[in-house]
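Hi support team,

I'm filing this because I wasn't sure whether my run with S-adenosyl-L-homocysteine finished correctly. The job status page said complete, but I'd like someone to confirm that the output block is well-formed before I use it downstream. Pasting the exact inputs I used:
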Amino acid sequence: MAWRSSGSSNAELVENLRKNGVFSNQRAYDAMKAVDRGDFTSRDPYEDAPQRIGYNATISAPHMHAAALEYLQNHLVAGANALDVGSGSGYLTVCMAMMVGQTGTVVGIEHMSELVELSTKNIKKHHSEMIENGNVVMIDGDGRQGYAEKAPYNAIHVGAAAAGVPKALTDQLADGGRMMIPVEQEDGNQVFMQIDKINGKIHEKIVEHVIYVPLTSRDKQWSHHH
Ligand code: SAH
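And here is everything the job wrote out:
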């Protein structure tokens, strides 16, 4: 399903993802239809491919965003509290906010302050009310520590790959909550892990192979450019 779903508009892109069987039900589809990817990257926004957004970051491919929303759909329900680690362009944070609705909250945390600023600008193009009403909160910080102030989270999405699952993130997962996180294995391959907390116990499952930029320090990601 990778790459096959490109369109010439946001509606066409999302419709092609649906035709290719990416969505199992209406909610992730509705969210992606309601958020114009063109607000979050100027470069070929309706191609089913990742795009560079500066600072060694990318906006993930639409089929990966769709997959993340699908895995999290039962946890991104009305009124839920969610965390998007490595929020980058802000696109997925807004899609998640669509799903939790006006009584829910999504915290986006990103360590490149330039991207926090850019994503806030992107969101304000068509969804400024989400920021005004506190449904979306964009934080400048190290997402490996999560964001304890607003924990626990019913859903956590991590948009960059770590060597292991940061303990702060499993700690901040609510009981009954789910985290989707790309993890780099010893052989260098990355897997998308589904982590559920059930009665306080952690259940891990590998759901697919993926390729993400690393979850790292701000200096490792960008300092050599200054
Ligand atoms: N999900 C976003 C961005 C994906 S790229 C989108 O689709 O637009 C991964 C992002 O994670 C980058 O923006 C990068 O700057 C950020 N990142 C990497 N390590 C991080 C860390 N330790 N804390 C916070 N953000 C981090």
